[in-house]
Give the backbone structure.
Amino acid sequence: MKKIAISLLTLIMLFSLASCFGGGTNEWETVCYSKDTTVGTGAKTAVVEVVTDGKTVTLTVKTDEEMLGAALLKEKIIAGEDGDYGLYIKAVNGTVADYDTDKTYWAFYVDGEYAMSGVDSTPIEEGKIYRLAKEKG
């Protein structure tokens, strides 16, 4: 009985996680977080605005990571792959941007200014507002 319960719980968790990175006709229907949310634990706080489909959700990330990218990867807020210039973000909060398909990408801003470094090489600084916005190139 215990094995069945664990198996069912595992399946439910997998389906929940898969829904965060699935595709849909309305991007807002596939997001992991649709309301302002606090995630993680740690001494540092990073405030991250995620903008997609004309809507914004603010995620407050508590972490002990030094770099923003590491914190967002750890909390599964972003997904991507390592490229020539660092982490290439492909999905944020369950929404995929695919430049090859529809010319969309994830733009990264710090305090309203286009970031001069990648998310994986940006240190977390208290009081800064980080924004990841799905934009069309």
